[in-house]
Design brief:
The complex is a heterodimer of chains A (about 325) and B (about 260).
Chain A: E1 2-11, E2 14-24, E3 27-32, H1 39-46, E4 54-59, E5 62-63, H2 68-71, E6 74-77, H3 89-98, H4 104-117, H5 133-145, E7 151-155, H6 163-178, E8 182-187, H7 190-196, E9 199-204, E10 207-213, H8 214-221, E11 226-232, H9 235-244, E12 250-253, E13 262-267, H10 270-284, E14 288-292, H11 296-319
Parallel strand pairs in A: 3-8, 3-9, 6-7, 7-8
Antiparallel strand pairs in A: 1-2, 1-4, 4-5, 9-10, 11-13, 11-14, 12-13
Chain B: H1 9-25, H2 28-47, H3 54-87, H4 90-94, H5 101-132, H6 137-140, H7 146-171, H8 176-190, H9 203-212, H10 225-248
The chains are: A alpha/beta (about 325), B mainly alpha (about 260).
Chain lengths: ~325, ~260
């Protein structure tokens, strides 16, 4: 479904993707890597937004750049927050359905269904300019899904969503994956990807480090404390509760006025922490606006993997 | 299953045009433009009286209308492609099966038609005001078809001006307004008023020639009305081509 063969992309003298060969089949595949690893570059290549400097990029067996027959069959949810702020959610998603090939009436009907699927029915007549980050994210997803594409590319789709929306989107993607769609989801948060799929591609500094089952990397990552960022209205109270419950080994509450109510917790049990933080907040009436991972631990694991690969190469050279 | 058919080019243009219309009419600049288009009518009302010389009335029309033909499209069109590039909203359109140039065509078409309606109404209103105060010869000369000629000059000039602003915005997406205003000040207001070869690239000089050509003056070295009309269309096509070229080559900017 998605094939890259010796694909490279340069931005001037900087390399974004370096000789990547990869094949992704039906189901959900996670594209995992720290910020700046080359995930978005890969997404832009496979969606036809950019042309590869070298190598082939094929989707559904055909070159994707400028290929309208392929573009008709893919859906893309970009990482950036830009939307047409003057349009309502319904107008925006309907417009995207129209340029996917649906006639006006069918496009509107499909747009309403897609927005309903993302729980945006009550807000669909509001302008996107007034939407929260999470609502925009769901609208972006709705426009990616509205024409029922065979292949879906989702670039950091859970960014900015609250825990409820996150669970909802995860369930939707699981359902689509089970239905046989090919879905490539990029993320820099292992925990997010882990909930969606067991198939991952690890990318770091423009290279694919590994691909396959997530549990291999899971074992590595568990040795590093997992950092979770929480934005809420009473961080000190939530921090105390998490420490008392033994869920956090370290907590850092932001004193910066630019990020009031922000705290970073370090935990050795990320699964339990992700499940428990919303529950703790709910019990105490604390309002959480964002729950995410700043991902330092993932960076550490990638460094470890890179060094290991480099070490193996050195040993091989020495043996030779 | 995906959509039943590939969308036509017209569908692409229509959808982009609709998005552009929403952006245009729901933005603050739209109301600023309405205010600016009322300004010439207000000035005409203030100065009109029987016995006012034609030259004076022509000056009023030229001083109010001509700069607006350059400035109002700049307000709407400079950011037209620049916003798409800067907000990266073009990624939604470019990942759909429509040609990339439909983005420029759809946006430009909408903006041009909306502004054309506004300018036509403004010119007609001025005409009525002048008529009520004693018709100036240049507008009522049966031989030269003054009013239609002013309208033709306005419509072609507006097209050129829209294309210029869109192209400047596409080439300089970070500073679209600065780029357009630099052109207006440098080329239109300075170079365009000096009778040299360089004045040929000035939209304003050709707009003036088409509109004022109705008086029948033909100074030495001045292009004919038909030449100026053709030049305006050529400049519009050139600016349009630059805008389309820039956008079609726009690759998604990224922090690697």
């Amino acid at each position: 479904m998605i094939d890259l063969a010796h694909c490279s992309k340069w931005y001037g003298v900087v390399i974004g993707l370096n000789d990547v060969t990869l094949s992704v089949g039906p189901g959900v595949t996670g594209l995992l890597g720290p910020n700046g690893a080359g995930k978005s570059t890969m997404m832009k290549l496979v969606t036809g937004l950019m042309r590869a400097s070298q190598g082939d990029v094929k989707v559904l067996g055909e070159h994707v750049y400028g290929n309208r027959d392929v573009l008709r069959r893919i859906g893309y949810c970009p990482e950036h927050e830009g939307v047409y702020t003057e349009l309502t959610a319904l107008e925006f998603v309907t417009a995207m359905a129209r340029i996917s090939g649906y006639h006006a009436a069918a496009a509107r009907k499909r747009a309403e269904e897609a927005l309903e699927r993302l729980d945006l029915t009550s807000a669909m007549h509001r302008r996107l300019g007034g939407f929260s980050k999470g609502m925009r994210q769901r609208t972006k997803l709705a426009q990616a899904l509205v024409h029922d594409p065979d292949v879906l590319f989702l670039d950091e789709p859970l960014t900015g969503t609250d825990p409820i929306a996150r669970a909802q989107i995860q369930a939707l993607l699981e359902e689509l994956g089970r239905a046989g769609k090919t879905i490539l989801v990029s993320s820099h948060v292992l925990h997010e990807v882990e909930r969606l799929t067991q198939e991952i591609v690890l990318i770091y500094r423009g290279r694919v480090l590994a691909e396959g089952n997530i549990y291999k990397i899971r074992e590595l990552i568990d040795h590093h404390p997992h950092r979770v960022r929480v934005d809420c209205d009473r961080p000190h109270e939530l921090a105390g509760a998490l420490m008392t419950a033994g869920l956090a080994v370290r907590v850092e509450v932001s004193a910066a006025s630019a990020a009031p109510g922000r705290m970073i917790i370090e935990t050795l049990t990320p699964d339990t922490a992700y499940d428990s933080i919303p529950a703790f907040a709910l019990d105490r009436g604390i309002h959480i606006t964002e729950l995410s991972s700043p991902d330092n631990n993932l960076e550490a694991v990638f460094r470890y993997l890179t060094e290991r690969v480099a070490g193996a190469r050195t040993t091989a050279l020495e043996d030779a | 299953m995906p959509a039943p058919s590939r969308p036509s080019v017209f569908t692409g243009i229509a959808v982009v045009a609709r998005i552009a219309l929403a952006r245009l009419t729901r933005g603050k600049a739209f109301y600023v433009s309405i205010g600016l288009l009322i300004l010439p009518i207000a000035i005409a009302t203030m100065v009109k009286r029987p016995g006012t010389s034609d030259a004076f009335q022509i000056s009023i029309l030229a001083l109010t209308l001509q700069p607006l033909i350059l400035f109002i499209p700049a307000l709407h069109c400079a950011g037209m492609l620049a916003d798409e590039l800067d907000d990266r909203t073009y990624t939604y359109l470019f990942t759909h099966p429509i040609p990339r140039w439909t983005l420029v065509a759809g946006k430009l078409l909408t903006t041009y038609l909306v502004l054309l309606v506004g300018f036509t109404l403004s010119v007609l209103a001025q005409y009525q005001v002048f008529k009520s105060g004693g018709m100036p010869r240049f507008l009522d000369d049966g031989r030269n078809y003054g009013l239609p000629r002013v309208l033709v000059a306005t419509s072609i000039g507006l097209l050129g001006s829209c294309c210029l602003a869109a192209a400047a915005g596409a080439v300089f997406p970070r500073r679209p307004f600065a780029a357009v205003f630099a052109w207006i000040l440098g080329v239109e207001f300075i170079i365009g008023n000096i009778p040299t070869v360089l004045a040929r690239v000035s939209l304003g000089s050709h707009i003036r020639r088409v509109a004022w050509g109705l008086i029948g003056e033909q100074k030495v070295g001045m292009p004919s009305v038909s030449t100026s009309t053709l030049r305006l269309l050529e400049l519009a096509a050139l600016f349009l081509a630059i805008g389309i070229w820039r956008l079609s080559r726009a690759e998604y900017r990224s922090e690697v």
